[in-house]
Amino acid sequence: MLPALLMIAVFFFLPVLAALGLSLTDFDIYALVRLDNLRFVGGGNYLRLLQTPLFWKALGNTLFFVIAGVPLSITVSLASALLLHSAVARGKAIFRTALFAPVVTTLVAVAVIWNYLLHTRYGLINSLLGLAGIHPVDWLGDPNWAMPAIILFAVWKNFGFNMVIFLAALQSIPEELYEASRIEGATGPQQLRFVTLPALAPTLVLVSTLTMAGYFQLFAEPYVLTQGGPLQSTTSVLYFMYEEGFKWWNLGSASAVAFLLFLLVLAVTMAQSFVFRRWSEP
Amino acid sequence: MMPRSRALLVNVALFAAAALSLGPLLWMVSVSFMAPGEASSSPPPLFPHQATLENYRQLFAQTRMGRGFANSLFLATAATLLALLFNVSAGYAFAKLRFAGRERIFRILLGALIIPAQVAMIPLFLLLKSMGLVNTYLGVLLPSVANVFGIFLVRQYALSIPDELLEAARIDGAGELRLFWSIVLPALGPILVTLAIFTFLGSWNDFLWPLIVLTDDDRHTLPVALASLTREHVQDSELMMAGGVITVLPVLALFLVLQRYYIQGLLAGSVKG
C-alpha cells in the first residue's frame, strides 16, 4: 500500500500543490533554462489572464460546450437507456454493445473519421443534408458551426457511458411501482414522469456531475479537428493552457489557467450538490 | 398504441441508434480499403470500388504509425502491469488491514478524484524534467501507475472477502505475503481483469500526457502519431482512415472480449456515493 500512496503523493498531490505555487511565479522559457530567472509575481498571472481576451474567449467556448453538450448528451443517453430497457426491445445485449462502442474508441482516431464526415464537399453529413435540400455547411471552417460540430461529435463519442449507468439504475427500479401506477390508470408518459424520472433522480445528479467535469476538460477534439480555430471559435480553456504552457512555455501563466479551471469545476460541482440537497430534502 | 406497433417502433429506433453509433466506425474501415483519392468525390462512396490494402502498406512503409503501434502496445502493457502491482496491494490494505488513519487517508484520496488531472500536469512535467525523464517511456508511465480509482475499485471488491477466511489462514500459520498471494489474489480475480482492461484502454487512448512528455517522433504513441499524420497528410483521407483502423481496432476488440468486466467496473466506479 505504501508504494501506491507514495506514488500518488509524489506524482499527484505534490504537483497539484506545486501548480498553485507555480501559478504565482513568472516561470517561462528563461526559468526553464536557469532557475535564477524565476520571480514571484503574486496574483500577477491571474490579473493578466483576466485582461486577456483569448482567455475569456476560451472560457466562453468551454462554457458553451458544457451548457449545450451536457444536457444533449444526457438526453441522448437517457433516451437510449429507456429504449434498451423497454420490455419489447430485442437483441438487447447486441444493441447495448453497439451503442457503447464509441466510448472505448480512441478519440484521435474517431476525430479523423468525423473530420471526413463533416467535410464541406465530400462529407457524408452534407451530402445527406443535400438530399433534404439543405445547402452544404462548412462545419469546421465556419466559426458559427465549428463548436456545434464538435458538440455533435462529443455526444456521439460519450453518450454510451452514461447510458450504461442509466440502464443499471432503470433495472433497479422495483417492478411493483409500475404495476401500482398501472392499476391507477397511468399512461406511459405519466409513468415516465411520476415513476421513472423520480427514481432516477440520484443517478441523474451523479451522471450530470461526471459529464460536466468531463466536458470542462475539452482538449483533444479541437486539437485534432480545428486546432482551436476558425477565429479561435473552438479554443477551449485546456487548449489555451496547452498553448500557453507547451507552445509559448509560459508555465507560470499556464498553471494559473489550470487552477482557474479547477476552481470553476469545483464551484459548479459544489453548487450542484447544494441545489440537489435542497431539492431532495422535503 | 397497439403493443405490436410499439414493439416495432422501439426496435426500429434502437436499430437507427446503433447504425448512428457504428456507422462512422464501419465507414472508416470501408474508406481505409479505398484507392488513394477515391473518397474525395461527391457524393461520398460508401464502399470501395475495388478493395485494396495499399493504404495499410503505405502506412507501415512510409509513416511512423508502425512504430507508434509498438510504442502504444509496450506502454499500455507496462502501465497495466504496474497498475496491478501498485493498486491491488493498496486496495487490499484499505479494505482488510488495520492501520492508523485508514479511513481518513482513504477519504482524502477520494477527495482527489474531483481534481482534474491537468492541474498537476505542468509541475509534473517540470518534476520529470528535473529527473531527466522527459521524452522517456518511464516519464509517460510514472504518473499513471498508482491511481485513486484503481485503489477504490479493488477496495470495494476486497471488502467482500470474508474476514474469517483470512483469520483461518493466519491461524494455520500463513504469513501476510503468503496470505496475499494464495488467498487474496485468487479471490480478487474478476476485479483484476476489470482493473487491467481499464488501465490498458486508458493508456492506449490517452492523448494529452504522451503529447507533452514524448518529444521525439520515434517515441510517439499511436494517437500522437496519428494526430501528426493528419496534419501532414490532410488530403489523404484513405491513408488516415487506415491509421484510424489500426488505432481503434485493438481496443475495440479487447472491449468486445472483456466487456462484462469493463461494464462491471464502470458501474462500481459510478456508484461511489
Automatic annotation (TrEMBL), chain B:
Single GO biological process annotation from the record: transmembrane transport
Family: Belongs to the binding-protein-dependent transport system permease family.
InterPro entries the record matches: MetI-like, MetI-like_sf
Nuclease is among the record's keywords: no
Keyword annotations from UniProtKB, A to Z: Cell membrane, Membrane, Transmembrane, Transmembrane helix, Transport
Main localisation: membrane
Record-level GO cellular component terms: plasma membrane
PROSITE patterns documented for this protein: ABC_TM1 (PS50928)
Protein name: Sugar ABC transporter, sugar permease protein 2 USSDB1D
Organism of origin: Hyalangium minutum
Compartments where found: Cell membrane
Membrane topology, from the record: Multi-pass membrane protein
TM region positions: 73-94, 106-128, 134-158, 179-201, 239-258
